[in-house]
Amino acid sequence: MALNDFIGQILTLTVARYAQYGYFLTNGEEDILLHENDTELELREGDEVEVFLYADNHGRATATTTIPEVRVGSYGWAKVSDTKEGLGVFLDIGINKEMLLGEEDLPTKRSVWPTVGDLLYITLRVNRNNRIYVKLATDPIIDEKKVKATRDDFNKNIQGHIYRTAKVGSWIFTAEGYKGFIHESQRVVEPRLGEKVEGRVIDVKEDGTINVSLAPRKQEALGDDAEKVYAYLQMRNGAMPYWDKSMPEDIEERFGMSKGAFKRALGKLMKDGLVYQENGWTYNKTEE
């Protein structure tokens, strides 16, 4: 295979000769330049060296001994280094050439484009002209990488970066490796793609994913049970099909607490003027 076919990948090549600006490496059929700016190694003719191949500004394969985590078929975090209107966002993967995430792969809303310093979870793709581009991690990839949260994570503070954003909400990949969803009602403003955010876990799903709220805690003194009920109510946009006459087994399944504890939590919320009950449902008063 031609060396151009390995752009974006790791390859072991042999030093063919030293040149004015670095070394020429060979696979026995083709030579490729390892520029002196792309290595800190002192090499001799005949040495074998592991390199990462990327395309120069003319689309030609060139080598570096810096092996980035982000490669074709390999995902990792990369920091945004620049944004250019009409082109997209450039990312630093650790080599001398920045990688482009094209404008067509960014959100349509310019306000949620990443800015310098934001982190994106990405891989690389190579087009027919041997140009390397950035590819964002999709939900199936995040599903492969994620760590499952447990009920013990409920109400914990978490931090993470936004990997997908839409009108209905934002998706987060946390420092712990949790995959989470932030409903539009649980964010004061829509976060940028790649932005680092901090919130709290307001629900843990059966598949180990989480729902997250970026809204400030409204009632720090509610107590754990009341906070749990109130967080669930907020996650459901201020309405839930549970009240003080709900069946004990339904309460246990949904909230993991006894009916007595649930009624005390509801009583606390109603006393504080946060909720009211009607026809088998509980509503958030602030949503009226």
TrEMBL record:
GO terms for molecular function: nucleic acid binding. Gene3D superfamilies: Nucleic acid-binding proteins (2.40.50.140), Winged helix-like DNA-binding domain superfamily/Winged helix DNA-binding domain (1.10.10.10). Residues 155-217 form the S1 motif domain. It holds the Pfam family S1_2. PANTHER family: CONSERVED VIRULENCE FACTOR B (PTHR37296). Belongs to the CvfB family. This is S1 motif domain-containing protein. The lineage of its organism: Bacteria, Bacillati, Bacillota, Bacilli, Bacillales.
